[in-house]
Write a structure and sequence with these properties.
The complex is a heterodimer of chains A (145) and B (153). With 145 residues, chain A is an alpha/beta fold. Chain A has 5 helices and 5 strands. Chain A has one domain: Rossmann fold, CATH 3.40.50. The chains are: A alpha/beta (145), B alpha/beta (153).
């Protein structure tokens, strides 16, 4: 059974690295990419071109995004009864305590900072696979609350 | 990489668990994985809340960096503990990992509804249980950025 992962990320380089690292770690991942916050919400609400988008099992969310920023996306998802159970992993370059604290306040499920080194970034994506997509029990896909 | 366990500061973990066997297994697995963990144990939900609110004999307890919470507990059950913590402004940022024998979808969904940070089911096999505790250490206490300890008031 495929695992649907939504990556919300505006950096093409980081998208490519994430895709490659997941590809090596787990063949059953379907990685969907939204390049800004507006597109992420359209995907989740199946609007416009995203009418047939699957419900993601997990969301990887950057904080600094064009159009609608990650903090706003986080608020919208966690305020929506039909979306709030989807785990959200913050994946950002920021290590600022204010961003960490605020993200947990806004109900992020966990906060990871992107390592600068390439091999560390790949290892981190692999650890997301090994923990979140292997060990953790996610709410069943397709089941709105 | 900065990790809270790696800078000489101990990582405070609160385990809320009523099974002495599981407490012992968890303690041993953490000890093997990470020497800087201080594991605190509350054996029911009332004790967990007293620990977190520094009540009674818990006046000088540290704020945990992370909480491992069983769902089925005496006195106050894990769902109630979860709801209390996530409704409390000063406690809600502490990540809560549900660690329970239940694999029922209703428990999984309800836990995420109540803002559990993640849900893990306890494996029956001993070596798998140990591996799961190690994976909690390797992910949550090594990779994840936890909110800095901050006492209320």
């Amino acid at each position: 059974m495929p695992i649907e992962v939504l990556l919300v990320e505006d950096s093409p380089g980081d998208v490519r690295l994430t895709r490659e690292a997941f590809g090596e770690a787990n063949k059953s991942i379907h990685l969907h990419v939204a390049v800004d916050g507006v597109e992420a919400m359209a995907f989740l609400r199946r609007e416009g071109a995203h009418a047939h988008a699957p419900r993601p099992g997990i969301i990887l969310l950057d904080l600094n995004l064009p159009k609608m920023d990650g903090r706003q996306v986080l608020v919208h998802i966690k305020e929506d009864p039909s979306l709030k159970t989807i785990p959200i992993v913050i994946l950002t370059t920021s290590e600022a305590e204010v961003d960490i604290e605020r993200s947990y306040q806004l109900q992020a499920n966990c906060y990871l900072s992107k390592p600068v080194q390439l091999e560390h970034f790949e290892a981190l994506v692999k650890s997301i696979n090994d923990f979140w997509l292997t060990k953790v029990k996610l709410p069943q896909q397709g089941k709105a609350a | 990489m900065k990790s809270i366990g790696g800078k000489g500061t101990p990582t405070e973990v609160l385990l809320v668990e009523d099974s002495p066997g599981d407490v012992r297994l968890t303690r041993e697995a953490f000890r093997d994985a990470n020497q800087s963990i201080h594991l605190h144990v509350a054996c029911d939900g009332v004790e967990a809340m007293a620990f977190l609110k520094h009540e009674g004999t818990y006046a000088n307890t540290p704020r945990p960096d992370i909480i491992l919470l069983d769902l089925n507990l005496p006195k106050m059950d894990g769902r109630e503990v979860l709801a209390h913590i996530k409704e409390d402004e000063s406690l809600r940022t502490i990540p809560i990992v549900i660690l329970t024998t239940s694999v029922a979808e209703v428990d999984i969904v309800k836990s995420y509804q109540l803002r559990a940070n993640c849900y893990l089911s306890k494996p029956v096999q001993l070596d798998e249980f140990e591996a799961l505790v190690k994976s909690i250490n390797d992910f949550w206490l090594t990779e994840v950025k936890l909110p800095q300890q901050r006492e209320k008031g």
